[in-house]
Amino acid sequence: MPPKRSIHQVTLQLTAGAAAVAELGKMLGQTGVNLVEIKRRYDELTAAQRGDVVPVRVTVFDDRSFALQLRTPPTSFLIRRALGAAGSARPGHDTAGTLTSAQLRAVAERKLPDLNTDDLDKAVRIVAGTARSMGVRVQG
Predict the structure, then answer these.
(1) What pTM was estimated for this model as a whole?
(2) Which letter does DSSP use for residue 19 in this model?
């Protein structure tokens, strides 16, 4: 039997534990894959993170089977959650709040698997850059 061939691959940002079938249908409807089965499996895998935005890479194969690969939540989402507020409407002019070094480190530790570094100190600097671009002051 020949190996499965990937015919479609897409990354979606869905709400953990409560993926919307309509959102899946927009991106995967033309592939003919079972959308309800994708939703059920995604909701199962992300039930512990309910309420978070958890990106997933969906790969559809030529036999209409699929594979799901979960990612960590977006850095901006994690920063907003740690801050307890949204970013600034005018970054560089207005400040949305301040992140402590402990909060910054916690976000970097959670995001580390998806960053292009294995060093936690470099990951903290990457997250700090994202925070600054959102209008969030970084302490320490």
Answers:
(1) 0.81
(2) -
